[in-house]
């Protein structure tokens, strides 16, 4: 039960540890691209679609004004997520980690049970992370992927040491991807695995724990 509880929303605490990639600022070389990761484009239209889906879900929520007001950096948040997902894919592939559809379904069911139902989970993820309903499956997939990656490495994401170990793997993977972000969205911070000064709210506490651990080392 303890393992299932940690897995269900591990991503909320585990986006996490790392410091990936060197981000170039040559976005002008790739018109129409929000970023290029591993030679593959993340189109501005793809990013805009994710933002629009999240905004539409927020506007339907009872506390819509508050949700919209709290996510002024939604475009950067979504681009952060799209880049991080590809970094995680690379790290998982390098470690031989795969995720099945059944594992995603089982993790989603566990998260829904923990949250009191699918509607409650969707509401929580919309509020905390700006996820539209259609974006939840991908977030759960990354949760399972990250959990399996940490297990394969013998790392406990509940500890600063485990976070640093997984972070090193993400750093190595992202350096291989040669991430190039369109300057209108900022640049990729290799030490914090985030876009410039954008700080994803669900990793703030973990980042502080890492910095404290490093300061005490």
What profile does the largest beta sheet have?
3 strands, antiparallel
Radius of gyration: 17 Å
Proportion of helical residues = 55-70%
Overall 3D shape: globular
The low-pLDDT segments are 1-28, 201-214
Q: Total number of β-strand segments?
A: 5
Beta-strand share of residues: 5-15%
The string of secondary-structure elements, in order, is HHEEHHHHHHHEEEH
**Strand-pairing-aware structural class:** mainly alpha
Which strands sit side by side, in order, in the main sheet? 2-1-3
Chain-averaged pLDDT: 78
Number of domains: 1
Explain the layout of strands and helices.
Layout lengths: L1 H7 L1 H5 L18 E5 L2 E4 H17 L3 H6 L4 H21 L6 H15 L2 H12 L6 H18 L6 H18 L2 E2 L6 E2 L4 E2 L8 H13 L1
Antiparallel strand pairs: 1-2, 1-3, 4-5
Helix pairs in contact: 1-6, 3-5, 5-8, 5-9, 6-7, 6-8, 9-10
Describe what you observe in this structure.
- Helix 3 (44-60) packs across helix 5, helix 5 runs parallel beside helix 8 (136-153) and helix 6 packs across helix 8 (136-153).
- The longest helix is centred in the middle third of the chain and has 21 residues, at 74-94.
- The strands form two sheets. This protein has a three-stranded antiparallel beta sheet.
- A hairpin with a 2-residue loop joins strand 1 (33-37) and strand 2.
- The protein is 61% helix and 7% strand.
- It has 217 residues and is mainly alpha-helical.
- The protein is built from ten helices and five strands.
- Residues 1-28 and 201-214 have low confidence and may be disordered.
- It has one domain.
């Amino acid at each position: 039960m303890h393992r299932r509880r940690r897995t269900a929303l591990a991503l909320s605490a585990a986006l996490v540890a790392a410091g990936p990639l060197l981000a170039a600022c040559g976005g002008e070389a790739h018109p129409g691209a929000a970023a290029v990761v591993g030679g593959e484009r993340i189109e501005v239209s793809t990013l805009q679609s994710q933002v629009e889906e999240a905004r539409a879900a927020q506007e339907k929520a009872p506390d819509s004004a508050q949700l919209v007001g709290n996510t002024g950096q939604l475009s950067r948040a979504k681009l952060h997520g799209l880049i991080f997902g590809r970094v995680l894919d690379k790290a998982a592939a390098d470690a031989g980690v795969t995720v099945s559809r059944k594992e995603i379904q089982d993790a989603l069911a566990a998260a829904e049970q923990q949250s009191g139902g699918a509607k409650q989970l969707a509401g929580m993820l919309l509020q905390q992370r700006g996820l539209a309903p259609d974006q939840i499956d991908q977030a759960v997939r990354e949760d399972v992927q990250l959990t399996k990656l940490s297990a394969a490495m013998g790392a406990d994401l509940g500890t600063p040491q485990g976070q640093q170990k997984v972070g090193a793997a993400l750093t190595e993977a992202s350096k291989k991807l040669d991430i190039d972000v369109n300057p209108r969205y900022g640049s990729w911070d290799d030490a914090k695995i985030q876009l410039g000064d954008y700080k994803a709210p669900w990793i703030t506490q973990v980042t502080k724990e890492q910095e404290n651990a490093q300061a005490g080392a």
